[in-house]
Design goal:
Elements: H1 2-24, H2 37-44, E1 48-51, E2 54-59, E3 62-68, E4 88-100, E5 112-115, E6 123-128, E7 133-138, E8 147-153, H3 164-169
Antiparallel strand pairs: 1-2, 2-3, 3-4, 4-8, 5-6, 6-7, 7-8
Length: about 170
């Protein structure tokens, strides 16, 4: 009987660890202009509203911030989108601990490099516009791969026609 309890405990422990590990990077399944708020809430629950159509999810590996469409395209602001209510527009995942960029298996030379300010010259952004993703890195030395602080996902160029400034002008 005692052995059965131990085996049962180990099975439950293994399953809970596997479930937790699986959920750690679930945020990476979110695709701007495809994933809905309902789908995100199935993964992480309701989250905390931090702004209009902006929700924060506190996860084990870091903080996920998701911006959703309000379904309104009233201004010609290039930041607004003609998208259904509740559709993910963009997201940002901020890691609790910095991650070695080399582990992502991405060639930085194929990404557009942006400086993120004079105050922190070692902070750089690497953008892949085709895939709709950017990496914010700390580069201690010019030749180092750097450490990832955050990853942002945004609509790819195929969705540009849905920006309110273009949609309202009929471009």
């Amino acid at each position: 009987m005692k052995i059965l309890k131990i085996v049962f405990f180990l099975v439950i422990l293994t399953l809970s660890i596997a479930f937790t590990a699986k959920k750690e990077f679930e945020w990476n399944k979110i695709v701007p202009m495809e994933t809905t708020r309902e789908e995100v809430e199935k993964l992480f629950g309701k989250g905390k509203e931090i702004g209009t159509d902006e929700v924060r999810y506190d996860l084990k590996e870091g903080i996920l911030i998701v911006n959703y469409s309000d379904g309104v395209c009233e201004s010609d602001d290039e930041e607004d989108w003609n998208a259904q209510t509740g559709l993910v527009l963009n997201l940002e995942f901020n890691f609790e601990d910095l991650k070695d960029f080399g582990k992502f298996g991405i060639d930085k030379t194929k990404l557009k490099k942006n400086s993120l300010g004079e105050c922190t010259p070692q902070l750089k952004e690497y953008v892949d516009e085709e895939k709709g993703i950017s990496y914010e890195l700390f580069e201690k030395e010019e030749d180092s791969l750097g450490e990832v602080q955050s990853i942002k996902k945004f609509p790819t160029k195929e969705f540009e026609f849905l920006r309110c400034d273009k949609f309202l002008k009929g471009e």
